[in-house]
What we know:
Blueprint: E1 12-16, H1 20-24, E2 34-38, E3 55-59, E4 79-83, E5 102-106, H2 116-120, E6 127-131, H3 142-145, E7 156-160, E8 168-170, E9 179-183, E10 190-192, E11 209-213, E12 233-237, H4 249-252, E13 258-262, E14 281-285, H5 288-291, E15 307-311, H6 316-327, E16 340-343, H7 358-361, H8 368-376, H9 383-391
Parallel strand pairs: 1-2, 2-3, 3-4, 4-5, 5-6, 6-7, 7-9, 8-10, 9-11, 11-12, 12-13, 13-14, 14-15
Antiparallel strand pairs: 15-16
Amino acid sequence: MCCLPMAPSIHELELEECDDEVVRSTGGLTSLASLKLSNVCKIAAEIGQLHSLVNLFVQYCPELKEIPSVLHNLTSLKYLKIERCESLLSFSGMALLTMLENLEIEFCPILESLPEGMMQNNTCLQGLSICNCEKLEVSLGEDHMRHNHYASSLTRIFIFGSCPSLMSFPLAFFTKLEHLCIGSCRNLESLYIPIPEGLHHVDLTTLRSLYIHHCPNLVSFPQGGLPTPNLTSLSINSCNNLKSLPQGMHTLLTSLQQLYKQFCPEIDLFPDGCLPTNISELCILDSNKLVNRRMEWGLQTLPLLRRVTLRAMFKISEISADISAIFRVSVNIDTIYPSDISFNGNFGNFLQLSAKYRRYIGILPIFRDISRYIGTVHGADTVHEQYISAHCS
């Protein structure tokens, strides 16, 4: 095929391993709303004639070096994804796409910067995702942010394995942010809340989820805690130098329902000694210092708690004593079990609760799912009862 047939009614088109002439012929598809280009050598200037184009995907184009400047004519473009273009150096042609709502760039290892105009003047950008672009930088300095408009419109930010100079993230400028995920940013040291000019206080009322993963140099959250009263999910994973979770969790994170803390060995207690009262799911993995102080967590004061998952090096007998003290259920187990202890429907590692204690399960909120599990496990009255009789009093 040397060119595409003229079919003005086509709304979606995917081209893979097509030559330049075929790619150029897309310019005549005036009703095209979505275009996916895969494994092409270059993007034809004729694509700039697609004034109805809303979604543009450019992926798996290892020889593509630049995005042509004529693409600034794509005035209807709202979603742009560029993925696995290993030779891409720049796409300055996108500088005037000020109506763009979602921008995703993944696995473009030599791309160093985004078009300045696209970011600085864009008041519509809602989603920004940058993944495994080792050299790509996004200017997030305080002076730079005061003159950018995109910060006030973004609702979702995902940065993973990119932005090598990112040392601190200025939360206060992202006043509409709902979801923030930062991963494998090895130079990130802190999240901070600079007070914008003219304000005395900042409340980040829109933020719903915060995930910080594999940031080994992260040492602190904003001083005074996170003013995020509507945050429902907080996940901190593999931040080896982090000494503490956010301050004031009990009073500031009043909507928090899910808390995951994994592989952060220096954290040994919860700030203020207690957890937010609306916690329903708690996961603490490979944190011996923190688990060793579990009797200070105040789990018995959390009325909505339904699921607890722990992993550390401890004796089952120690956890049994905790359960007895907190929930008034007596269990006597001596087994060394350096694995997961999970108080939820997946109760395989902790099915040592004998039958005579099952009557307590239905009245304990955290164990309600367990009663259904124990009652439906195949062979629960044979194999597991044998295990119970051997290990429980």
